Amino acid sequence: MKVFVAGGAGYIGSHTVYELIRAGHEVVVYDNLSTGCRDAVHPGARFYEGDILDKDRIVQVLQTESAEGAVDVAMHFAAKLIVPESVSMPLAYYHNNVEGLRQMLLGLMESEVTSIVFSSTAAVYGEPQKGECLEDDYTLPINPYGETKLAAERMIKWASEAHGLNYCIFRYFNVAGADSTLEIGLNKDQLTHLVPLIMQAALGQIEKLSIFGSDYDTFDGTCVRDYIHVTDLAKAHVKGAEYLCKQNSSLLVNLGSGEGYSVKEVVDAASKLLPLAYEFVPRRPGDPAKLYANITKAREQLGWQPELGLNDILQSDLDYRRKLLGSNS
Ligand code: UFG
User: Fold this and answer.
1) Which of 29, 104, 190, 322 is the most exposed place for a label (fewest CB within 10 A)?
2) Of 192, 193, 223, which is best to mutate to test ligand 1, by the most ligand atoms within 8 angstroms of its C-beta?
3) Closest Cα to residue 108, out of 50, 61, 170, 176?
4) Which pLDDT belongs to residue 248?
5) Is 145 tagged catalytic?
6) Cβ(263) to ligand 1 under 6 A?
7) CB burial of residue 207 (10 Å; 0-12, 13-18, 19+)
8) pLDDT tens, 255-285?
9) What whole-number percentage of the chain has pLDDT above 70?
10) This prediction's pTM
């Protein structure tokens, strides 16, 4: 396959590019480098700088690439994805995540690319009663990030009906960890996600971890989430793209591990690798109490199965952060 990867210099995009190349596919990366990093792009991929909102640039790149052989599938990772940031900057999230997708779809249609793998999120489920989420469950986001991704999913479905687009929509749960080579990982100045912050506390890069809320309706009072290793997630994208190339149909599936862990359980598991200081602080706005995936559909429809667990996630993030520390000293 030849795959066009918008956002391929970012965290999940760069890991997916690595897995596509390992599986023998040809990869074209398109990224504006606003949060992505040029060094994270696998040397085997071709890189074009450009913005998701710039439809003309997308068409130009797709036409240049098509001259050498048709692009089979597009992937879209070029989105804003921080829940608390979305609460304080909702309009920026609508602009990038909804209008950006619209521009990309226009560019794909103009270039006759008819398959898309799209990154959505468990945040579309909002605050599920039972915690476990199935793809057919009711969706009612409780933060602007989830709202923009739900709007994007619906845009793709309507475009599919009207214009014959095939899609594979993935609803991600909590993605963490780093590639086994440690060449890529989550490398940002301002980290907001739990796993890297735990490791920063363990390595003394921040004084202590703040645990947001201890009074949720969960077994230990802290939020329950489903942590999936970024390499497992990336491999699912390869399967999703292959599915679209083989079948003339579309798919929407959850990507998680299928297991829920509380924040406190994750902290305790990490403390076994390296002790860390933490404190309980008030709840953070926009956080649901429990969110974990039912992954039966991904198993059945894609033949995909997560291979790595919570300890692999924690260990690989720790190793990656140690490597960054070493290269900065
Ligand atoms: N948390 C802390 N302290 C921190 C950071 C996080 O206690 O310093 C807690 C949060 O309150 C939450 C859990 O750890 O309960 C996970 O928080 P993250 O910020 O790591 O991730 P989110 O659950 O907010 O969001 C992530 C993705 C979303 C996705 C969601 C699905 O960023 O894209 O998982 O579960 F929608």
Assistant:
1) 190
2) 193
3) 61
4) 86
5) yes
6) yes
7) exposed
8) 999 999 999 999 999 999 999 999 999 999 8
9) 99
10) 0.96
